[in-house]
Write a structure and sequence with these properties.
By secondary structure, the chain is α/β, with parallel strands linked by helices. Helix content is about 30%, strand content about 20%. It has helices at about 10-20, 45-50, 85-95, 110-120, 125-130, 140-145, 155-170, 215-225, 255-265, 310-325; strands at about 1-5, 25-35, 60, 75-80, 100, 135, 150, 180-185, 205, 230-235, 240-245, 270-275, 290-295, 300-305. Helix 7 (about 155-170) packs parallel to helix 8.
């Protein structure tokens, strides 16, 4: 059994993570920690999320920066925290011998200069940036197996990279035309903290973060080419649907594209490919999959891909990485997962 600590336990991502870990046969949840400023300190998780009553009644404890008390008490820590908090805590847990799964953006990109521009804090820990492994599970399997710090990808980069990386790596794209990624996310991507900008009665379908969204450099860094990325927020609670438009090199047929996707994903249990039609949000909500469909006309390729931003875009991908790291089946505690 892996003794596990979850920090940032009361947010949307945190509770999805805990629900999945609770049913994992190799996990023993030792404690749930939340911000020292939270009004929920001392409450049970099920007090905040009543659907977990008599299922997960663990108390929410206050986090502090002294992690030495956890030495030899935990094997694994999940950081469902802000970038700045993960930046402080990750090296401390590594120093006491833990395997760290960080769901923030603090260690995703191996370029310290990106952080001041896109994340609004100065990143001085270049040694740990060099050590961190990007947790895009379908592509970095071998590196994840030996990592001590796994940086779980952002929700938008996950759906974008899973759609485009097989084609990019196979040299099928005509890069004289930048791939265009139009992606719409539910409001849960903005977190649980109250804000008028994400209040359900106020929200409308609208673009945001054009040319300056923090997921843009992450997509470009791991795809290996420039893109045009247009994120949107929609008036629905969860999920991401991306419509991606790109140009293929001359002579690339639908059969070649289909074969490329099949070659990359035939043994990847959390990718579902459509040979006909396109996926919708309802295909993946509360499920751990990324669904991908496409169509071609002449050299124009349109990909429709969708995922649950709180699951494949975050918490279930973190557990997929945990399973890989410890030599377990990738879909353990994930396949057939469903919350009513």
């Amino acid at each position: 059994m892996l003794k596990t600590l979850i920090i940032g336990a009361s947010g949307y991502t945190g509770v999805e993570l805990i629900t999945l870990l609770h049913k994992h046969p190799n996990i023993n949840i030792i404690a749930l920690l939340i911000s020292e400023d939270s009004l929920n300190i001392g409450k049970k998780l099920s007090d905040i999320y009543p659907q977990l009553k008599h299922i997960i009644d663990l108390p929410l404890q206050k986090i502090d920066n002294d992690v030495s008390r956890w030495k030899s008490k935990i094997d694994v820590v999940f950081l469902a925290t802000s970038h700045e908090v993960s930046y402080i805590l990750a090296p401390k847990f590594i120093n006491i011998g833990c395997i760290v799964f960080d769901l923030s953006g603090a260690f995703r990109i191996n370029n310290a200069n990106i952080y001041e521009k896109f994340y609004n804090f100065k990143h001085d820990n270049t040694a740990l940036l060099n050590k961190a492994v990007y947790g895009l599970a379908e592509f970095y399997f071998n590196s994840i197996k030996n990592a001590q710090l796994i940086a779980i990808p952002g929700c938008y980069p996950t759906v974008a990279l899973l759609s485009l990386k097989p084609l990019m790596d196979s040299n099928l794209l005509d890069l004289s035309h930048y791939p265009i990624i139009n992606a719409i996310s539910g409001v849960s991507g903005s977190g649980r903290k109250a804000s008028i900008n994400t209040h359900f009665c106020e929200i409308s379908l609208k673009p945001y973060g054009i040319f300056n969204h923090r997921h843009y450099p992450e997509i470009v860094s791991y795809l290996g080419c420039q893109v045009i990325f247009i994120p949107h927020i929609g008036n629905f609670s969860r999920g991401i649907l991306a419509t991606i438009v790109c140009h293929l090199k001359t002579g690339i047929t639908k059969k070649i594209v289909q074969k490329t996707f099949l070659n990359y994903y035939q043994n990847k249990p959390l990718i579902r490919l459509y040979t006909q039609g396109f996926p919708s949000l309802n295909s993946v909500i509360k499920l751990p999959y990324c669904d991908i469909g496409f169509e071609i006309k002449k050299n124009n390729l349109i990909i429709i891909a969708t995922e649950d931003n709180l699951l494949k875009g975050s918490s279930s991908q973190a557990i997929q990485c945990l399973n890989i790291r410890f030599g377990l089946p990738e879909g353990l505690s994930l396949i057939n997962y469903h919350v009513n």
